[in-house]
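Title: Comparing notes on inverse folding

I've been comparing how different people in this forum approach sequence design from structure. To keep things fair, I'm posting one structure and asking everyone to reply with a full sequence. Here's the target:
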């Protein structure tokens, strides 16, 4: 009896901790369309993608807080995926050197920041600093929200994939 109780307690402890998470799915640039934009099969999974960090100045001239991973440096090439990262100089953060901050009176959107695009860096998971012209591997949890209907997609929907809770590292 005592052995049965111990076995049940051990099984509950393992279940409470959960099974170890599977390693991230490595998505190549050529697979982004099929795996991320026209399917939500990887939604909620850990995904890793190699590329280059691009910071868009947005439609209104303000820097976006969502970053885009592209297939070539300096925003050239194909956009691969949006990802969220914090600003700063700690591990897994992007350092955006602010040249000027303009307060918007009565603006709900916050301040307008003028950023020195030539001196942007990212810190990898170990805290080492890298320039955004260097290739980076972004690993994060995929969130696939439907964007619009698309008859070319097997599901009839095109998705707008985004990586959350990211870690950054120099790409191999």
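Reply #1:
Here's my take.
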């Amino acid at each position: 009896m005592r052995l049965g109780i111990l076995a049940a307690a051990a099984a509950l402890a393992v279940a409470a901790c959960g099974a170890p998470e599977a390693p991230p799915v490595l998505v190549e640039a050529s697979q982004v369309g099929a795996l991320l934009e026209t399917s939500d099969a990887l939604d909620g999974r850990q995904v890793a993608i190699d590329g280059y960090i691009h910071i868009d100045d947005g439609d209104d001239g303000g820097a976006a807080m969502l970053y885009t991973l592209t297939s070539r440096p300096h925003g050239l090439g194909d956009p691969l995926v949006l990802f969220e990262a914090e600003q700063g100089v700690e591990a897994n953060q992007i350092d955006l050197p602010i040249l000027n901050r303009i307060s918007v009176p009565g603006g709900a959107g916050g301040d307008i920041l003028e950023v020195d695009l030539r001196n942007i860096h990212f810190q990898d998971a170990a805290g080492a600093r890298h320039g955004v012209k260097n290739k980076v591997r972004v690993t994060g949890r995929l969130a696939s929200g439907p964007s619009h209907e698309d008859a070319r997609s097997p599901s009839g929907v095109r998705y707008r994939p985004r990586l959350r809770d990211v870690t950054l590292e120099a790409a191999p």
